[in-house]
Structures are given as C-alpha cells and as structure tokens.
Amino acid sequence: MIRVLLADDHEMVRIGVSAFLASQPDMEVVGEADSGKRAVELALELRPDIILMDLVMPEMDGIEATKQIIAQWPEAKIIVVTSFLDDEKVYPALEAGATSYMLKTSKANEIANAIRATFYGQSVLEPEVTNKVMAKMKQKKELLPHEELTNREMEVLLLMAQGKTNQEIADELFIAVKTVKVHVSNILSKLGVQDRTQAVIYAFKHSLVK
C-alpha cells in the first residue's frame, strides 16, 4: 500500500481526496494536516510514502513546509497539488524539494497516477509546469558564464582585473581575506578558467573592465 499524507487547509478538499484515495486498491491515507506546520509534524512522525502538499495554508505555507520536511527527511516524496501556476509558486516549490507538481483542476485518476509514478521514483509535472521549467533551463543555458556571477563576485573580478591582491580586495570591500578567496574560487569555477590571470583575460575579452 502507498501511504499518503494529505496537507490542505480546506476540509472539503481533504474529505474528497481522502475518499477517492480510499477507493484505490493500492493506497491509504495515513494522516491529514490543515496547516503547513501540522504537515511538517505529521510528515516527520508518520513518514508516509507520499505527501500531497497544498501551497497556500495557514501558519506555514506549503513551500516552507516542503523545505522543512526535506531538510529533516531528504528522502521524502512530496507532490504539490495547487491552483497556482505562477512563477512565484512553481520554481520555489520545485527548488524546495517537491518531486511532482499537479493542479487541483487535474482529474482524480491523474492525481492517482501521479502518486504511483512519484512513489516509484518518477517526477510528474503538469504540462504547463514542464513548459515553464524547460523555458527557464533554456534561458539559463543561453547565459554567458559571467552572467552567473553574483554582484559581489563581479566586484571581486573587477578588482582582480585592476591587479589588486586578495588583501587589497578585502580591505576595499570590507570583508575577510578568507571570504575573498571563496569568491575567487567561485569566479574561476563559474567562468571555467584555471587561474586569476585567465579570469582577468576573460574580463577584458568580454569588456567587463572599462
């Protein structure tokens, strides 16, 4: 049996989903949560096979609940079931650790199939969500290496191009030398170069230094 935890603040939704899942020969509902906080508590207590997670709930939203569950139980399999398709919900939910993303407008059998697929290690995304993710991945692939740098890393790179040492960079930015070294390491990795000299050459080649 696939043990399922329902997390949704609407009682009628929980009643409907619970009744449907009870009719499935391979599923059973082992708990219901009416808030994100309660979802975290029950997930860690019951360790269900699948967690159906709403995103908008009291006390704690589904995204934060997902983060907390995954942080304490990385193997958890969470299926977001929501009405939202906006970027502010989709990407944070997936980045938080949700395995699958479904809409409440999905047919009951589609939710059941998503539960089974997720249980067996697959990721199920609504077509609209898949399109969003693919578009974002394509956009990310089109970025130049230096466009992946944070603002602080760009500052460090430009100071490197001025010939400043780690100590001088640390003094100018009011940060520790150890922190500068971490930034330099990240810069080299993101730019795909082996040393500071190559990083500086990259900066000049791409007109980052004026």
TrEMBL record:
| SMART domains recorded | HTH_LUXR, REC
Lineage: superkingdom? Bacteria
Q: Which GO terms describe its biological process?
A: phosphorelay signal transduction system; regulation of DNA-templated transcription
Q: Where are the transmembrane segments?
A: none
Q: Which GO terms describe its molecular function?
A: DNA binding
InterPro entries on file: CheY-like_superfamily (IPR011006), NreC/VraR/RcsB-like_REC (IPR058245), Sig_transdc_resp-reg_C-effctor (IPR016032), Sig_transdc_resp-reg_receiver (IPR001789), Tscrpt_reg_LuxR_C (IPR000792), WalR-like (IPR039420)
Mind listing the UniProt keywords for this protein, alphabetically? DNA-binding, Phosphoprotein, Transcription, Transcription regulation
Q: Residues in domain Response regulatory?
A: 3-119
> What residue stretches are annotated with the HTH luxR-type domain?
142-207
Q: Which residues carry this modification: 4-aspartylphosphate?
A: D54
Known PROSITE patterns for this protein?
A: HTH_LUXR_1, HTH_LUXR_2, RESPONSE_REGULATORY
Query: Pfam families in the record, alphabetically?
Result: GerE, Response_reg
Instruction: Name it.
Output: DNA-binding response regulator
Species of origin reads Parageobacillus thermoglucosidasius (Geobacillus thermoglucosidasius)
Q: Name the lineage.
A: Bacteria, Bacillati, Bacillota, Bacilli, Bacillales
